[in-house]
Amino acid sequence: MSVTSERAYSGTMDAPPFLTGQFLLAMPGIGDPRFERAVIAMCAHDEDGALGIGLGRTLSDIGFHALLKQLDIDPGVAPDCRIHAGGPVEPQRGFIIHSRDWGGEGSIDVAGRWTLSATLDILRAIAEGKGPERWIAALGYAGWGAGQLEQEMKRHGWFTTAGDEALLFKSDVGARWEDGFRGAGVDPRLLALESGTA
Q: Entry's HAMAP family (predicted)?
């Protein structure tokens, strides 16, 4: 998939709404428990499909140090932070979403907003204190085939918002969903009230 193409979702059907570099926020009552209150950083979206990393919740059974040790990497100076549940696809596959001040082989610039890396090099760099200034670790991803996300967007299951770095790197995971809506000028309490009347 090409990660460089980007177009804001306009709600019109005359052009494909590419969402690379934006966030998907699950609407209340999305209908899939795996995506309730989901916040997904869209890292690739084009005619062939889409890939995003979930940032709305963390895993309870593994921390960053345990992950590094499983990969025979000394944690060094890396913080023992929580790992995000990136999505239901390939839940054993790791990703780091990070600031653009670090890049390695296979790193992908996401619309000039953040970088996605999925190699051992970035884990070693973080452990050695030579990695990016800001980063988030995740296992798994959310994936859509060609046209699948566009169909979901028509059913109003998702809300899109700009790829704000503050939402990515400064917002607490427990508040990220609400923060995403508030940043777009939407009161999430009103959404929650409306979801019970459907």
A: UPF0301
